[in-house]
Every structure is written in C-alpha cells, then in structure tokens.
Amino acid sequence: MKILIIGDRHVGGYGLTAGQISFVGHFIRQISETGRAVSVEAYVHSTLSGVHSTLSQLPLERYDLIVVQGGQGCLDHPAGLGALLVRNTDNLPDMSGDVILPDWLQPIRKTEPSGLLNQLSKMGKLLLVKGLVAIGQLPRLHTVRHELTKLLTLLRPHRHKVIVLSPFPHREPIYQWLRQQGKSLFMRSEVRQSFSVFDSDAVVQPREEYFQTNKPGYLNAIGHELVGRALFDFYLAAPTIVAIHSIRRS
C-alpha cells in the first residue's frame, strides 16, 4: 500500500524528542498492524499553495491513499500577523520543514510586554483581526479560500482515496481563532460531500496537555498519538475511501 502524506511541520513531528513519533507514525503503525505492507512518501509545506505546487508534480494516480493536512499556513502564516494582509502567499517564504533559515528570512520576533500589558496586547490584536474579518478586509482569508478551492479541484479526480485534515488547534487565542476561520472553509458542506474531512478539533483541544510547553502551536507526543489513532479509526470508517475494503476483508 503506497501512502502520500503532505502537511505542515507536524508531519515530521517537529519539536518531538528522540523516541517520540508524529501522528503520521502512529497512523502508519496502526495500518501496518493489519498485516499490510506500507510505503510512505511525505512532504512538508506551510501553505496550501505550497501543497498544491507539490501535488501538481506528483503522479497522484499511483497512490492508494492521500492524506492532506491543512497546516499552520492555512491562515496564520509563520511569517507573523503581518502576513494576514498579504493577498498572494507566493510573496512569502515557505517556512516549512526544520531548515535553519538565514536571519533575513526569519519572522520578526519582538519582545512582548509581560503580565497585564501582554494580555491587553493579545486582546487588542484579536479584536483587530475579528474586526477586519467582519468587514471583509482580511486578504489572507480570501487567499486561503482560493488556495483551498484550487487544491481540492486538483484532488477531485482522486477524492475516493483522499483524507483532508482540518487545521490543528493552537493555544494562543488569536491563532486559534484564525485557525477556526480556516477550519470553517474545510468543513463546508460542499467539501464534506466530496471528500473525507477529518475534524482535528474533535480529537485535541487548545489545552496545555496536548501541546509542547514552549511551542503553543505544536502538538506534543500525547497530542500526536491521539490524532494518529483517531485518524486511523476515521480512515476505516470513511465511506469514500475505497482502499479500506481490502483491510476489512483481511
């Protein structure tokens, strides 16, 4: 069984320590335990446009299963909040994988105020972003909608073997809210009628027990295991996945 998996840094288990495996590892382990020989091809991208670019160059008809994770770049691009105002993500570096980028490509990191000022700052940013969405002035949201439509159009001929994961939660309120906006695009009825869409929020919530201590946007080992096991259960039950029948027969 040949599986293609593409998504953000979670695919490679970013931030996990030696001996810990990502949700992909848990998912593949579960499939292997059914007795099937499995080969995996994985790619990491931080934007949907990057995912589309890679998929458009691959022989999708040769895979038995395609798993697409709508990752961190779905709406909250790692280049920071300023990226929300950029319409075309081709203008932004695709900060994916664990590559060490040169300083001039690194996102600008400012020292945040502490205590009450920090909370007020975060609240102000969240209110600003919500206001921009309310008046239809958040370009990134329109870009992501276009990127997702383009991606799903590419995958549509193979939809019987595709699982799409909604964006994982984030512990920071503003990014969690943004990811919820991205999730709403994945959970639209027209998407779920054509594709098997895995709702990540139904498995992990934005609480500290599921996330790495110093990386509030990345799942820890517990979060990865929960997602991997739940994804396998979803895979077995997904009505559009043709490949599951051979597992059930075995």
* Amino-to-carboxy terminus distance: 14 Å
Radius of gyration: 18 Å
Number of domains: 1
Q: What CATH architecture label applies?
A: 3-Layer(aba) Sandwich
List segments where confidence is low: pLDDT < 50 over at least 5 consecutive residues: 95-110
Let me know the CATH homologous superfamily. SGNH hydrolase
Helix percentage: 25-40%
Organism: Spirosoma aureum
GO molecular function: hydrolase activity
Protein name: SGNH/GDSL hydrolase family protein
Keywords: Hydrolase
Q: Secondary-structure blueprint of this entry?
A:
Blueprint: E1 2-7, H1 23-32, E2 39-44, H2 48-55, E3 65-69, H3 115-134, H4 139-155, E4 162-165, H5 173-186, H6 189-194, E5 196-198, E6 211-212, E7 215-219, H7 221-237, H8 244-249
Parallel strand pairs: 1-2, 1-3, 3-4, 4-5
Antiparallel strand pairs: 6-7
GO molecular function: hydrolase activity
Keywords: Hydrolase
Protein name: SGNH/GDSL hydrolase family protein
